[in-house]
Amino acid sequence: MQKEDCFYLGNIVSKYSFKGEVLVKLDTDDPEIYENMESVFVSLGNNLVPFFIKRCRLHKSNLLRIDFEEVKSESDADRIMKAGLYLPLTKLPKLTGNKFYYHEVIGFTVIDSVHGDIGVIESVNDTTAQALFEIQKEDKQLLIPINDDIVTKIDRENNTVFVKTPEGLVDLYLN
């Protein structure tokens, strides 16, 4: 399994017991849907290694307490400390309406309410304070903020994102 075929679930942040249990900080709004997993991929070096789960349960807010079959001691747990956990993209819950995963809209055409077709989403930059669509229109790149006021509709059937950009934003790039 390759990382590009998976999504990041969280990071192992600490040991929980001397028997090798670990606590995972989840990167999700719905931690309860990951309570009964049977296995995950653990990022070790440049590889994703499958780990099978004996027991998995929520521990406080968004921490998951995991007892892996392969991890039986504190020293075993030390070897996977700080490692990232991944699941196949097929395990992502389906989103509907205007909710979307960033990877899902790559390649979608963006239609602005005033300017019409403003290009194709090449990537999403989520390293800034405000996540941005990176859109390519011929030889120009447009950066459009992702928020509920701007993204008005996601049309998955036609691979289209409809937006209503603030006045003048698109003009900065195309004129």
From TrEMBL:
Classification via Gene3D superfamilies: PRC-barrel domain, RimM
Q: Name one GO biological process term.
A: rRNA processing
RimM N-terminal domain boundaries: 9-88
**Mind telling me which Pfam families this protein's record contains?**
PRC_RimM, RimM
Q: Which GO terms describe its cellular component?
A: cytoplasm; ribosome
Q: Where in the cell is it found?
A: Cytoplasm
What does the UniProt keyword field contain?
Answer: Chaperone, Cytoplasm, Ribosome biogenesis, rRNA processing
Q: Which residues form the Ribosome maturation factor RimM PRC barrel domain?
A: 103-169
One Gene Ontology molecular-function label: ribosome binding
Q: What domain of life is recorded for the organism?
A: Bacteria
Q: Sorted alphabetically, which PANTHER family does this protein's record hold?
A: RIBOSOME MATURATION FACTOR RIMM
Q: What is known about its subunit structure? A: Binds ribosomal protein uS19.
- Function field: An accessory protein needed during the final step in the assembly of 30S ribosomal subunit, possibly for assembly of the head region. Essential for efficient processing of 16S rRNA. May be needed both before and after RbfA during the maturation of 16S rRNA. It has affinity for free ribosomal 30S subunits but not for 70S ribosomes.
Q: Any notes on this protein's domains? A: The PRC barrel domain binds ribosomal protein uS19.
Family membership, please give it: Belongs to the RimM family.
Q: What is this protein called?
A: Ribosome maturation factor RimM
